[in-house]
Amino acid sequence: MPLLKKIDTTDYQIGIWKVVRSEFDTINTKKLSPNYHPEFLSYKSEFRKWQIHAVKLLYRELDPKNELFTKKEIPYLKKKGFVSISHTKDIVVIITANYDCGIDIENRDRNTSKIKHKFINSNDFSTINNREDFLKIWCMKEVLYKIKKDSSLLFKDHLFIEKYMDGYVGNCQHPRFSFQSSLKILNFENYFLAFNTNYRE
Q1: How buried is residue 46: exposed, middle or buried, by Cβ count under 10 Å (0-12/13-18/19+)?
Q2: Beta bridge mates, 88
Q3: Residues 96, 126: Cα–Cα separation, whole Å
Q4: How much of the chain exceeds pLDDT 90, in percent?
Q5: Band of pLDDT at residue 127, cut at 50, 70 and 90
Q6: What's the confidence (pLDDT) of residue 21?
Q7: Which one-letter DSSP state was computed for residue 33?
Q8: What is the Cα Rg of the chain in Å?
Q9: Chain centroid, CA 12 distance in Å
Q10: For residues 91, 151, 45 and 16, what is the CA-based torsion angle, rounded to 10 degrees?
Q11: What is the 3-state secondary structure (H, E, C) of 53-115?
Q12: Torsions phi, psi of 90, nearest 5?
């Protein structure tokens, strides 16, 4: 079983899964959360099919009594609770929580410094020209974006990351809404894993 890590708390749980091609089964995958990307078997990308199947397998591991579905490509849960999904190459991650949640995983080799002008603002924490800080900020802003699921959110204009002794806080200041979340960013193998641990409007 390619379950690499599982985190269980009172308010949220996280699973990390490795995409394994040999696990892909076109018959069984139709039975797992059939309304999660229901047309995915017709996708041209074989790897994308494997990723979606891996998400289904991981979600069954986390919560076999509930079911994933997508609406306009966004994941939701059939029963109560909230969910967010991320993937990079052959790794998929899921967070389920009793609050609005987001998650992101990025390879630590990714260089976001070339596009920092598109997502860094003067209110974000940063060590000047620190490549890892830029990537951490990108990860945490991805989390905030996924929490709200609103395409009008702009990373640079509406999302802000503050650093404290005990962690990070993300703030969203949008013309139509605002919220704040405590954020965690963990090292997992050669990846940064970011997620929020609460949600406050």
Answers
A1: exposed
A2: 91
A3: 29
A4: 82
A5: low
A6: 84
A7: S
A8: 17
A9: 13
A10: 10
A11: HHHHHHHHHHCCCCCEEEECCEEEECCCCEEEEEEECCEEEEEEECCCCCEEEEECCCCCHHH
A12: -105, 25
Q: Is the dihedral of CA 71, 76, 80, 81 positive or negative?
A: negative
Write phi, then psi, for 36 (nearest 5 degrees).
Answer: -95, 110
pLDDT in tens, 89-120: 889 999 999 999 999 999 999 999 899 999 99
Q: Which residue has the higher pLDDT, 139 or 22?
A: 139
Q: 3-state DSSP call for residue 155? A: helix
Please classify residue 183 by burial: count the beta carbons closer than 10 Å to its beta carbon, then call 0-12 exposed, 13-18 middle and 19+ buried: buried
- CA-CA-CA-CA torsion sign (173, 179, 182, 183): negative
In sequence order, what are the beta bridge partners of 21?
A: none
Q: Taking the model in full, what pTM does it have?
A: 0.94
pLDDT, residue 66, reads 93
CA distance 125 to 159: 12
Residue 128: per-residue pLDDT: 64
Alpha-carbon distance values, 129 to 126, 135, 157 (Å): 8, 11, 20
- What are the structural domains, with CATH classification, of the chain? 3-104 (3.90.470), 107-189 (no CATH)
Separation CA 47–CA 52 (nearest Å): 9
